[in-house]
Amino acid sequence: MDRRHALGVRSEHQAAAALRAAGLRVIERNVRFRSGEIDLVCRDGDVWVFVEVKARRPGWDTAPSAAVSWSKQRRLARLAQLYVKWRGLHDARCRFDVVEVTDDGRGGVTVRHLRSAFDAPA
């Protein structure tokens, strides 16, 4: 496993732990469709939460969430539609969150949960 992939896996574990601590239930991880992957699918009460996890190592000038571009938002919204249809979740209430995981370079990390980080693009 290369460093970048290892960082991603570790960050998704840290994000899932932070979401559980915030009261969300992690339903699935790394849900793959032909057109892409949903990092985490969670439940927050009766709301289905589709989570994009973004990690950064020391030295990056921008916040991890800055990497969630309009096209990435659009892709995640389409993947969420596929998921809802695939699971037969009629009239599901959905939300899109981002979890930022920032490595401080000294063995510590900061995890920041951005609830309702974006609305589904049209």
What would your notes on this structure say?
The chain is α+β, with helices and mostly antiparallel strands and 122 residues long. It has a single domain (3-118), classed as Trna Endonuclease, Chain: A, domain 1 (3-Layer(aba) Sandwich). Helix content is 30%, strand content 40%. The protein has two helices and five strands; from the N terminus they run αβββαββ. It has a five-stranded mixed sheet, sandwiched between helices. Strand 1 and strand 2 form a beta hairpin.
Question: What distinguishing features does this structure have?
Answer:
5-stranded mixed β-sheet; Trna Endonuclease, Chain: A, domain 1; alpha+beta; globular
Short description:
The protein has 122 residues and is α+β, with helices and mostly antiparallel strands.
Structure annotation, total helices: 2
Shape: globular
Q: List low-confidence stretches.
A: none
Query: What amount of the residues lies in strands?
Result: 35-45%
Number of strands: 5
| Level-1 CATH class name | Alpha Beta
CATH level-two architecture: 3-Layer(aba) Sandwich
Distance between the termini: 37 Å
Taking the sheet with the most strands, its summary is: 5 strands, mixed
Structural class by sheet pairing and helices: alpha+beta
Question: Order of helices and strands, N to C?
Answer: HEEEHEE
Q: What is the gyration radius calculated from CA atoms?
A: 14 Å
**How many domain regions?**
1
- Please give the share of residues in helix: 25-40%
Spatial strand arrangement across the major sheet:
1-2-3-4-5
| CATH domain fold name | Trna Endonuclease, Chain: A, domain 1
